[in-house]
Each structure stands twice: as structure tokens, then as C-alpha cells.
Amino acid sequence: MRYKILIFGIIFFIGLLVVMEVNKSAQTKILEISDYIKIFFLDSRDSIAKFYEKYFNQAEAIETLSAKVADYDKLLLERETLKNDLHKLQNLIGRGGITHSSSEIHQARIISFASLGERDRVWLDSDLSEYHQGTRLEDRIFGIVKDNVAFGIAVVENGRLEGFLNGNKDCHYDVYIGKNKAMGIVSGSHKGRMLVEYIPNWIEVHEGDEVFTSGLDGIFLENIPVGVVESVRENYGYLSVDVRPYASASELSYVWIIDIAVPHFTDESMRETSNVP
């Protein structure tokens, strides 16, 4: 009887050890599965968080970069304005009859073409209340600049800003051509290219010459690139050239409007002018 109790005790102890080992193994398996599930959900959460963070950071970065590009374009135009003003002031030092003019640059958005099938006329959205108010807006012509090159002109029609792009028959502004600065007038289009006419035929003009704004018409600032001469021909005592414009109408978005105030005489220059016999 004593041996039976001893054997039973030994068997019970061995059975207890086996059960504990099995429980330990089962517990380990359960913990491993639990850890896998936790890690899976944590990894998924981190991946989703990183995805959204990356997306929103990219969107924010793109928006920031777009704003910086717009500011950079405007700064380039303002720099050109200051350079032109400085050049004019240097030329006028010590002379009478100095005039005063100022220019501003406004952002505008192209909202639609003016009519179907006419891709060189557009409607623009811009706050006209911010423009120079010295003269009637309807009597003025504004320059349009896109990507720092001349894109066309704009006028106010019935309280709306209408744009006539390069090549349109109503788009006219003064330009210089080549190193000799031959003067010409943008006058619509010819054979699919922008036409510049009324160039003096005694000044040499060549294919490949760059065309840029003269700033003499009060529409554009001086030295804004327009395009490149592709062909030259003589036309009734003057030259005409076909120009490949730098600006493209394939992508219509935001542009800059050059708002140049009408020059006026200063008080001192008026007194000097009145004393002239």
C-alpha cells in the first residue's frame, strides 16, 4: 500500500510537470500569436500614418513651392522694372523736363477662352480695384507676361479684363529686334507665326535675332523676351519678320499683368517748360 501511494505520487508529479510544460508551450504559442497580431496592427498603423504624412507633406510642399515660384517670377519682373527705372534716371540726370511714371505688377488667372475656336483671346480674372486709378481703365492697355516672357496685351471691356494673345489681330505692342535694337510693331500673325512689321529697312535684321519688348509704348517693361526671328522679308520700304514666340497658349493658368501709370511732368519740369519761349 505504501508503494502504491509512492508510485501514485510519482506519477502525479510527472503528470503535473507534463501539464505545466504543455501549458507553458501553449502560452508561448498564444503570446507569439498575440505579438504577431499586435506587430501587424502597429506596422499597419505606422504605414498608414507615414502614407498620409508623406501625402500631406508633399501637397504642402508643392503648394509652398508654387507660391515661391510665383513670387520669384514677380521678383524678376520687379527687378527688371527697377533696372529700367535706374537706366532712365541715369540718362536724365542734369536734364530738364524729367517725367515721373510708376509701374505695378498684378496676378491674373485665365478663366476661359473668349469664344469657341479662338484660342488667342481669353478672359482674365484680376482685382481691377488694385490697378492704377489715375486714368480710366477702359482707356488703357496692359501687358501680359507668362513665365517671364511677353504673352499678349489686355484691355478692360465692360468691367472685365480681356486678353489678346500673341498672334491675335488686335494684339499690338512695340518691340526691339536683335543687337541693333531695330524697332518694330507686333501686328497679328503670318503663316502661323507672330508677325512684326514696320521695321526700318536700313537696320540689319537676321534670322535667329531675339525679339524683346521696348517699353516705349507704356504697355510693357523694357527687355522682356518675346521670341526669335524665323524669317525676314522686305515689304514696301520696310521689313517684316515672322517670330516664333517664347510664350505658349497650350497651358492657360496664372499670368502677370503689367500696370504702368501714365507719365506726368513734375512741378519743376512744368516750370521749366513754361519758361521756354
Automatic annotation (TrEMBL):
<dbReference type="InterPro" id="IPR055342">
    <property type="entry name" value="MreC_beta-barrel_core"/>
</dbReference>
<dbReference type="InterPro" id="IPR007221">
    <property type="entry name" value="MreC"/>
</dbReference>
<protein>
    <submittedName>
        <fullName>Rod shape-determining protein MreC</fullName>
    </submittedName>
</protein>
<dbReference type="InterPro" id="IPR042175">
    <property type="entry name" value="Cell/Rod_MreC_2"/>
</dbReference>
<feature type="domain" description="Rod shape-determining protein MreC beta-barrel core">
    <location>
        <begin position="169"/>
        <end position="258"/>
    </location>
</feature>
<dbReference type="GO" id="GO:0008360">
    <property type="term" value="P:regulation of cell shape"/>
</dbReference>
<dbReference type="Pfam" id="PF04085">
    <property type="entry name" value="MreC"/>
</dbReference>
<dbReference type="GO" id="GO:0005886">
    <property type="term" value="C:plasma membrane"/>
</dbReference>
